[in-house]
Design a protein that fits this description.
Helix content: 25-40%
Number of domains: 2
Shape: elongated
Distance between the termini: 40 Å
CATH superfamily of the largest domain: NAD(P)-binding Rossmann-like Domain
Radius of gyration: 21 Å
CATH architecture of the largest domain: 3-Layer(aba) Sandwich
Structural class: alpha/beta
């Protein structure tokens, strides 16, 4: 096996209205809302990364061996056979979410926290697995409106507590795509 993609996610409890709380009681109610749904969110979005990655480590190691890499922990991986110019090694890709980096809650507290945890686990895997020749990287995709629907971020533009800015650099890149009706927003 050459590549493992950890791409699972559930939203968990909906805390999208948390920014609209006007009293401490409303905020407390939002914090405790659907508390029983936090655990499944963490199990799916965060803990599963270690479980699935661990289950496939031997196959990722076999992928490295197939390309001639020596088995086992080494300071520098040694190649014993195969194409000496082929520098590829097995890789784990963890799909997180841009919401893990956002200042404002756009997808619920449990989801945001669990995806931030996924990013941290991906970094930890990178450090733990590098000596074995297995790479770990994370990607954090975000939402974009395609003109037919409006995302949470676009809907939140009416919320005075949240400031958004249209990012023309991303929009220029996107406008070259076949569907030029897409828009890109970043939270600042």
């Amino acid at each position: 096996m050459d590549v493992l993609v950890n791409n699972a996610g559930i939203e968990g409890p909906n805390h999208k209205q948390i920014a609209n709380a006007s009293t401490i009681e409303e905020l407390q109610r939002e914090f405790l809302k659907d508390w029983d749904l936090w655990n499944p969110t963490w199990q799916t979005n965060t803990a599963a990364i270690i479980g699935v990655s661990g289950a496939f480590l031997h196959l990722l190691d076999e992928g490295n061996k197939r390309r001639g890499w020596v088995n086992g922990k080494r300071e520098v991986q040694q190649r014993v056979s195969g194409d000496q110019n082929d520098q590829r090694t097995s890789q784990i890709i963890t799909v997180a979410s841009i919401s893990a980096f956002n200042r404002y809650i756009t997808a619920g507290l449990a989801y945001t926290a669990s995806k931030a945890g996924a990013i941290m686990l991906g970094k930890s895997l990178a450090n733990l697995l590098a000596p074995f020749g297995i790479r770990s990287n994370m990607i954090a995709p975000g939402r974009m409106s395609n003109g037919r629907d409006c995302t949470i971020l676009c809907n939140s533009l009416t919320n005075p507590r949240v400031s958004f800015r249209y990012d023309t650099r991303i929009a220029d890149d996107i406008s070259s795509q076949p569907d030029s009706s897409r828009q890109a927003w970043r939270v600042w």
